[in-house]
Amino acid sequence: MSTGTSAAAPAARLWPVSWSIARRSLLLIARVPSTFVPTLVMPLFFVLAFTGAFSAIVNLPGFPTDSITDWFVPFAAVQGAAIGGVTIGYGTIRDIETRFIDRLLSSPAPRGALVVGPLVAGVLRAFLPMTVVLLAGALVGLALPGGALAVALLYLAGAGTALVAGAYALGLAFRIQSQQAAPLIQFGIFLTIFLSTAQVPLSAMSGWLEAVATVNPVTQILDLARAGFVGPVTWGEVWPGLLALAALGVVSVAFAARGLRRLVP
């Protein structure tokens, strides 16, 4: 009886401790805004720059929409969500270098909270850049033919992307345990996003880039994010994105959990 009680205790503490860690991360947005500003600035820059510089690509044969804003806003929102997700990796690196993590590891806090807490913060952080990008898109002519359902799918795609990106960043932070992980985190995110249909659809690609973008799961996630932005919502656009997020979520969270073992004495 006592064994069952002691085994259940860490599980009962998992969520309260995880939420405390997540809340601490969210409070840093106001206390250290410089760590979060790029999450807002970069997606907005992409909306303004790309909708102006690449406005003529809607004239390409087979381009799925005649609204350049509806094409780039979902991409910028998902990218903002990804950047919001990886900021928890930078915060974890800082906690490792200041030995805050050591204090958590020496406490009776459940080890799983060191993964769950930052991931909760990463997903919640992602909602701010996505909302800002949507509002900016509305100001520059967003048509949004799919209405509220399209917005819901965009938030779903962004939240899932933040989870995957955050778990990837945590895994690297736990393994490298220094600021040297930061460039690798950024490189991985930008590489996977820009080797997809971030800028043009598959029908406008050729050669190796088309082959890579076809098998890149970010392409399916962007199709999910764009469902209802470039036309009516269809199940054929939705399910591949959900499947890609589920698969990447399992792999990336396992990557983070295994990395945590490097820190546990």
Descriptive account of the structure:
The chain has ten helices and no strands. It is 75% helix and 0% strand. The protein has helices at 2-31, 37-53, 68-97, 100-105, 113-139, 147-176, 181-194, 207-215, 217-226, 235-260. Helix 1 (2-31) packs parallel to helix 5 and helix 2 packs parallel to helix 5 (113-139). With 265 residues, it is mainly α.
Could you give a quick summary of the protein structure above?
With 265 residues, this protein is an all-alpha fold. The protein has helices at 2-31, 37-53, 68-97, 100-105, 113-139, 147-176, 181-194, 207-215, 217-226, 235-260. It is elongated.
What is the fold's blueprint, element by element?
Layout: H1 2-31, H2 37-53, H3 68-97, H4 100-105, H5 113-139, H6 147-176, H7 181-194, H8 207-215, H9 217-226, H10 235-260
Helix pairs in contact: 1-5, 2-3, 2-5, 3-5, 3-6, 3-7, 5-6, 6-7, 6-9, 6-10, 9-10
